[in-house]
Amino acid sequence: MSVVYSSWPGASGRLTDSVSTDTSTAFGQYRLIERIASGGMAEIFLATATGFGGFEKRLVIKRLHPQYTHDEQFVKMLVDEAKITVQLQHANIVQVFDLGRIEGQYYIAMELVDGKDLFQVLRELHQNDLQMPIEAACYTAMQMCHGLHYAHMKRDDLSGKPLRVVHRDISPQNVLVSWAGEVKVADFGIVKATKRASSRASSIT
Q1: How is 52-111 classified by DSSP, letter by letter?
Q2: I need a surface site. Which of 62, 74, 156, 179 has the fewest CB within 10 A?
């Protein structure tokens, strides 16, 4: 399993490869199982949400580093990403489930895509002196375009005005391919949209 997201605007580079941590820890209603990656401004965790009767759902937690919890600019980036992406309900876009603050730490809860990113797929093909079959390449590109077209044409849920979302970072690392053959666009962190969210950090509970 691998989930890779790009770094935040202004960060010095991509999130690093998988980094193991200690045993799982509680984080509000979530349980952090493993740190998947760590970048300049956020950490990515494999996590589970628990509920009544032993209910569990695997997902991903994207959490700001503690040193940025009082930085309004970085908190607003997180809020904007979540509030725009949560409106993008499409099979080819990684879904956002929750935005909040637990013990002073801001986070987004997101869909877990169980598979690899496109960069990893292409790297493994290259290492084995192989090329992606043209059918697979066309299918992947077509699914990406479905998601991006939907995002660009999506209208704001409240005002009805077009969001005109432009991703601005369509790199192989931000295209996730699941073992089931799903293709999903990830990380709308530096998205350009007609209407950006304007909520202040104090509005997050």
Answers
A1: GGG-EEEEEEEEE-GGGTT-HHHHHHHHHHHHHHTT---TTB--EEEEEEETTEEEEEE-
A2: 179
Question: What's the pTM?
Answer: 0.78
CA dihedral for 163, 77, 147, 7, sign (positive or negative)? positive
Q: What pLDDT was estimated at residue 202?
A: 41
pLDDT at 122: 96
Known catalytic residue: 169?
yes
What tokens were used for 69? 């919890």
Distance CA 3, CA 28 (A): 22
CA–CA dist 90, 80 (Å, integer): 18
Out of 17, 156, 169, 187, the active site residue is: 169
